[in-house]
């Protein structure tokens, strides 16, 4: 069922939601959280599709906030709220309200969203594309226990990572971090089997890919060893190599789907490491609503510090490989 409301209010939207549930015969609310999606018209469809798929695991009230920028000075002064309500089969396993804000109301989105939040339920705010510099300081971000962004969508992903580290607050997270969860799990399991001392590490992947940088920072932060970041043609993250005294532990994924795990003294093993869709990443993030301290620690390690540690570790190696200076020939002693 779809209901369109023009020039409406939050109170009228709540009343329409209650009536719509009664009309389709499901008056009881079985939703576990409120998911606030802050996006634009161009990206709203894809974001909603991912949220609908994730709602099969996490039934939610989905509030889509679309800020419509007015062109003329007069229209910018006129505040107006239009809403589209979707319940039943048109809203996944929960209910959806698409909010289109016009005029001065664009700067006060939190006043529209606040009355529509589910009572006594967690709130998650998600920016699929463009996000504010300070997530927790944003008026809409302040409503959420968890704040999800994606630095992969930024124009400069590495600068975005640095900005996330500077403005980090408990509850912030990044889908670029979520993408490397299978890699981190596989590497941790491999090291548990080997029980070896790591000397250095190398991470290969697409240049300026934030997931590759986050994995490298996580390894450097947890292992306290130099980590080198090497670019590759992708797709995404392609290889991780951990150097040990007994040999190298290598997790290699050349095709974006099936990876090969190589460990000293053991046969090669094929492991599934397919690239996941946004809906799967979102569903994973909705499973936990507490702060991710591991992400915070890796993020604060910093891209610049990672590059500095890699260059510092390369300097002694270059000095060792440099040819030794030829000794000067000894002078012959002459009798006087």
From TrEMBL:
InterPro entries: G6PDH_assembly_OpcA, OpcA_G6PD_C, OpcA_G6PD_N. Residues 52-165 form the Glucose-6-phosphate dehydrogenase assembly protein OpcA N-terminal domain. Residues 170-299 form the Glucose-6-phosphate dehydrogenase assembly protein OpcA C-terminal domain. It comes from the Bacteria. Residues 312-327 have a biased composition (Low complexity). Residues 312-336 are annotated as: Disordered. Pfam families: OpcA_G6PD_assem (PF10128), OpcA_G6PD_C (PF20171). PANTHER family: OXPP CYCLE PROTEIN OPCA-RELATED. This is Glucose-6-phosphate dehydrogenase assembly protein OpcA.
């Amino acid at each position: 069922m779809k209901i369109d409301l023009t020039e409406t209010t939050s109170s009228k939207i709540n009343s329409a939601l209650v009536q719509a549930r009664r009309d389709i015969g499901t008056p009881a609310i079985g939703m576990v959280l409120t998911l606030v999606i802050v996006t634009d018209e161009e990206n709203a469809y894809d974001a909603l599709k991912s949220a609908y798929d994730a709602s099969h695991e996490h039934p939610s009230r989905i509030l889509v906030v679309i800020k419509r920028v007015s062109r003329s000075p007069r229209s910018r002064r006129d505040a107006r709220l239009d809403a589209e309500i979707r319940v039943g089969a048109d809203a996944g396993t929960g209910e959806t309200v698409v909010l289109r804000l016009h005029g001065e109301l664009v700067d006060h989105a939190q006043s529209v969203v606040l009355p529509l939040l589910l009572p006594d339920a967690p709130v998650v705010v998600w920016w699929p594309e463009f996000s504010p510099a300070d997530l927790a300081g944003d008026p809409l971000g302040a409503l959420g226990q968890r704040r999800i962004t994606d630095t992969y969508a930024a124009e400069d992903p590495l600068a975005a990572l640095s900005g996330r580290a500077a403005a980090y607050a408990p509850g912030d997270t990044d889908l670029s971090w979520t993408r490397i969860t299978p890699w981190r799990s596989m590497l941790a399991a491999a090291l548990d089997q080997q029980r070896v001392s790591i000397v250095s590490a190398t991470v290969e992947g697409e240049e300026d890919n934030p997931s590759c940088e986050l994995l490298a920072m996580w390894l450097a932060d947890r292992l306290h060893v130099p980590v080198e970041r090497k670019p590759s043609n992708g797709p995404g993250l392609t290889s991780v190599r951990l150097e040990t005294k007994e040999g190298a532990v290598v997790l290699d994924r050349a095709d974006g789907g099936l990876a090969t795990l190589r460990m000293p003294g053991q046969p090669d093993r094929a492991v599934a490491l397919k690239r996941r869709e946004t809906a799967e990443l979102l569903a994973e993030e909705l499973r936990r609503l507490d702060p991710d301290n591991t992400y915070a620690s890796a993020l604060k390690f910093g891209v610049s510090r990672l590059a500095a540690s890699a260059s510092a570790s390369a300097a002694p190696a270059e000095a060792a490989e440099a040819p030794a200076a030829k000794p000067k020939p000894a002078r012959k002693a002459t009798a006087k």
